[in-house]
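Task card 7
Instruction: Convert sequence to structure tokens.
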Amino acid sequence: MGYTVRLDLPRILEVTGELQHFLELGTARLEAEGPLSEEESEALIFSLADELEDHLRTMRERQGSASIRDLQMWTRAWIEEQQEDLGGREDAG
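Output:
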């Protein structure tokens, strides 16, 4: 039976230098969604964090381990992909 290690996403974002990029992505997603209640805004940000955490966990499982550099590269790639998807949505709208 395998084990699960809970990722400390805020700490990962801080240590990898990706916190600001994640916050910018969150802001862009909130702006793209239009007016949301405080509850809806929080739910959107938490869902982004959950998606990123799932992505990091998947990447770590594929590789078997993860260095800080790995986490930084995976986080940056995920954020950039999300931003590209968001840009495509804005262009379509």
